[in-house]
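Try this one yourself first.
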């Protein structure tokens, strides 16, 4: 009892302290419905802003009270945000984890408090799989496979590829690499000649590619595979700076299917973007409603991914929400 009181107190204090140093917990509009705590990695990128916006709109439509915790990219803020949601008596917690590891302890606390957890977008790697009920999001492994398949079809299976990876230890970086590499196993003419982290960040990706071009020269690769669109934008800049012609001399392929990417495809600088859709509010809240009604839900709810290239980018542009 005393222990419980102390941990509740420390959660409140921690929550408050973290709010002060960046982890903003938005109260959301006052409604009577169930309280959902949503721990989001960050909200600055347009991809994540679109995800939060859609989830907020869906919560409003269905009469849920939603509180969003923005961890500004830091796992320790996410962990204290989760503890704070426990202290606030959340009915269910939605977690979009920065990285896969390091969640066992806090998710055990959430489970002990009797609060179900739904993962959204990225996944966790925990010893005890019962620490979350289900995961709603895209199939990142399939996205990586689709990107490789597109390059294989376009090049007749002959390509030297530079890979720009997403944030280390995050599910999309791990699986977009794995799906791509697995496809290459049956493609003797295709190889990854260099792979560098670009942290889902355009400047980091641009700098990494500039350095590779400087060190190895222009004629050493035929394609760039970036784990997301914003890194592809950085890569396009680096190629242009080096006097190369992105989209023509060098194929550029990425993932997300954002508005920026579709525009770049229409302009001819980007060749292909595999969709990874952040607009998941409807599927997420269908799942949440089932869980709160005591129904069984599947362990995984997969959001479909399309492939965009010059054949369909233009028609997909109107109404693109991210
Ligand atoms: O592709 C990227 C974002 O987790 C799938 O994270 C998400 C990825 C998305 O930073 O643009």
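Now uncover the answer:
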């Amino acid at each position: 009892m005393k222990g419980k009181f102390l941990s509740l107190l420390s959660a409140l204090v921690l929550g408050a302290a973290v709010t002060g140093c960046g982890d903003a917990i938005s109260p959301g509009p006052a409604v009577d419905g169930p309280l959902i705590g949503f721990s989001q990695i960050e909200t600055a990128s347009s991809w994540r802003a679109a995800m939060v916006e859609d989830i907020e709109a869906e919560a409003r439509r269905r009469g849920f009270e939603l509180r969003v915790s923005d961890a500004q990219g830091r796992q320790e803020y996410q962990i204290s945000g989760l503890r704070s949601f426990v202290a606030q008596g959340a009915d269910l917690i939605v977690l979009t984890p920065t990285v896969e590891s390091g969640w066992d302890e806090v998710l055990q606390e959430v489970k002990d408090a009797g609060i179900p957890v739904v993962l959204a977008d990225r996944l966790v790697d925990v010893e005890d799989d019962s620490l979350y009920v289900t995961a709603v999001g895209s199939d990142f492994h399939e996205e990586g496979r689709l990107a490789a398949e597109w390059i294989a079809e376009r090049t007749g299976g002959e390509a030297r590829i530079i890979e720009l990876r997403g944030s280390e230890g995050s599910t999309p970086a791990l699986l977009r690499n794995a799906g791509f590499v697995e496809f290459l196993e049956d493609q003797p003419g295709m190889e990854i000649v260099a792979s560098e982290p670009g942290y889902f960040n355009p400047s980091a990706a641009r700098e990494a590619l500039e350095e590779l071009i400087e060190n190895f020269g222009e004629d050493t690769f035929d394609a760039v595979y970036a784990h997301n669109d914003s890194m592809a934008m950085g890569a396009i800049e680096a190629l242009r700076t080096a006097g190369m012609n992105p989209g023509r001399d060098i194929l550029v392929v990425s993932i997300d299917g954002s508005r920026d990417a579709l525009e770049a495809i229409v302009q001819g600088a980007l060749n292909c973007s595999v969709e990874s859709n952040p607009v998941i509010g409807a599927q997420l809240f269908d799942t949440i409603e089932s869980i709160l009604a005591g129904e069984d839900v599947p362990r995984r709810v997969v959001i479909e991914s399309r492939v965009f290239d010059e054949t369909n980018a233009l028609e997909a542009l109107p109404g693109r929400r991210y």
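Discussion: The pocket of beta-D-fucofuranose is lined by residues 45, 47, 121-122, 172, 200, 228, 255-256, 276 (CB under 6 Å). The CA atoms of residues 223 and 251 lie 4 Å apart.
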